């Protein structure tokens, strides 16, 4: 289960020297969290993480299972990730590419590996920059579909209370 308190130790820095000397992912876009990482109580853990101010709700436009033309009634498919450093207090945030992940320090990720997003844990580094994500935005949005309404509701609750 993901905790909200970052604890940093040298042993937790990404073991891949390849990634440690690069870090381009973390500088542009925080990794996506899987709802399985918030089990057994997804709702309580979602509230707790959002209340820390370190996480944001992002979304896929339309239904991620079928693109914009699938008539499922899903306008936005929400999912959870850490927030960007440049956007404190912004719970709903679809932006990417222009600000580092809030957990990126000069020494790498401050989260212990057990608390990192699924996408961060599963990135496949490839020389030449063609690195592969096994849990990109679309897959994250599909995984969070059973919790889509919950994400929106709790996101608005937390936004109002700030
Ligand atoms: S996955 Fe690729 S882009 Fe990301 S930090 Fe590792 S080497 Fe860099
Ligand atoms: S949580 Fe850590 S590994 Fe993942 S994007 Fe943020 S700084 Fe990088």
Structural overview:
- The chain has 162 residues and is α+β, with helices and mostly antiparallel strands.
- The protein has one domain (10-161).
- It has 6 helices and 4 strands.
- The chain has helices at 17-20, 24-28, 42-51, 118-122, 137-143, 148-161, and strands spanning 55-61, 76-82, 104-105, 108-109.
- Strand 3 and strand 4 (108-109) form a beta hairpin.
- It binds iron/sulfur cluster (2 copies).
- The site of one iron/sulfur cluster has 9 residues, from helix 1 and helix 2.
- The site of one iron/sulfur cluster has 13 residues, from helix 2.
Assembly level: single chain
**Rg, please?**
15 Å
| Large-scale geometry | globular
Overall average residue pLDDT: 86
Order of helices and strands: HHHEEEEHHH
Question: What ranges have pLDDT less than 50 throughout 5 or more consecutive residues?
Answer: 4-13
Lateral strand order in the biggest sheet: 1-2
Beta strand count = 4
Q: What is the number of domains?
A: 1
| Biggest sheet record | 2 strands, antiparallel
The DSSP helix count reads: 6
**Ligands in the structure?**
iron/sulfur cluster
Structural class: alpha+beta
- Fraction in beta strands: 5-15%
Secondary structure topology:
Layout (H helix, E strand, L loop, with lengths): L16 H4 L3 H5 L13 H10 L3 E7 L14 E7 L21 E2 L2 E2 L8 H5 L14 H7 L4 H14 L1
Antiparallel strand pairs: 1-2, 3-4
Helix pairs in contact: 3-6
Bound molecules: iron/sulfur cluster (SF4) (2 copies).
Which characteristics define this entry?
single chain, 162 residues, alpha+beta, binds iron/sulfur cluster
């Amino acid at each position: 289960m993901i905790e909200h308190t970052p604890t940093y130790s040298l042993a937790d820095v990404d073991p891949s020297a390849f990634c440690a000397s690069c870090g381009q992912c973390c500088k542009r876009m925080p990794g996506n969290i899987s709802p399985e990482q918030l089990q057994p109580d997804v709702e309580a853990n979602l509230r707790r993480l959002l209340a820390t101010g370190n996480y944001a709700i992002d979304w896929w436009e339309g239904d991620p299972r079928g693109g914009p033309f699938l008539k499922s009634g899903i306008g936005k498919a929400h999912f959870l990730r850490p927030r960007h450093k440049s956007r404190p207090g912004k719970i709903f945030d679809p932006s990417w590419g222009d600000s580092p992940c809030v957990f990126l320090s000069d020494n790498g990720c401050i989260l212990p590996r057990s608390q990192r997003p699924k996408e961060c844990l599963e990135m496949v580094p490839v020389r030449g920059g063609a690195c592969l994500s096994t849990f990109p935005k679309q897959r994250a949005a599909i995984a969070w579909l059973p919790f889509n309404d919950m994400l929106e509701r709790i996101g608005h609750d937390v936004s109002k209370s700030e």
